[in-house]
Design brief:
Elements (H helix, E strand, L loop, with lengths): L4 H28 L20 H8 L2 H4 L14 H14 L9 H14 L2 H10 L3
Helix pairs in contact: 1-4, 5-6
Organism: Pseudomonas syringae pv. actinidiae
Protein name: ISPsy14, transposition helper protein
GO molecular function, one term: ATP binding
Length: 132
């Protein structure tokens, strides 16, 4: 074995840290309940969807999350709004943010039910703890 004790120990520590971060990311992705397994790196900018590559790259940097800003994605049916939202959410999970994906009808249903059975404050507190 050509590695010294310190080198072997360093490799073991690096592996442990990597495995723990992978487990945390897997947990964040599972909790996010994303509709699509989408990644920003998979976007095809050649398709005629009118995506602004510079804007997508800027959003992918996550600065808007660090600044506490909101994002609304709009457009006609079938242009990939949900896919893009999931790709941004996936990137946020990889960057260490907690995410919860909900479509508006489901959110309204959850809020209405929680308001009716007295869980509204608890539900809102849970959403407030989520980064995105």
């Amino acid at each position: 074995n050509d590695l010294s004790f310190d080198e072997r120990l360093g490799l073991m520590v690096d592996r442990e840290l990597t495995e723990r971060e992978d487990a945390r990311m897997t947990t964040r992705l599972k909790a996010a309940r994303l509709r699509h397994n989408a990644c920003l790196e998979d976007i095809d900018y050649r398709s005629p969807r009118g995506l602004d590559k510079a804007l997508i790259l800027q959003l992918g940097s996550g600065q808007w999350l660090r600044d506490g800003l909101n994002l609304i994605i709009g457009g006609p049916t079938g242009v990939g709004k949900t896919w893009l939202a999931c790709a941004l959410a996936h990137k946020a999970c990889r960057d260490g943010y907690s995410v919860r994906y909900l479509r508006l009808p489901r959110l309204m249903e959850e809020l209405g039910l929680a308001h009716g059975d007295g869980r509204f404050a608890k539900l809102m507190a849970g959403y407030a703890k989520t980064d995105l």
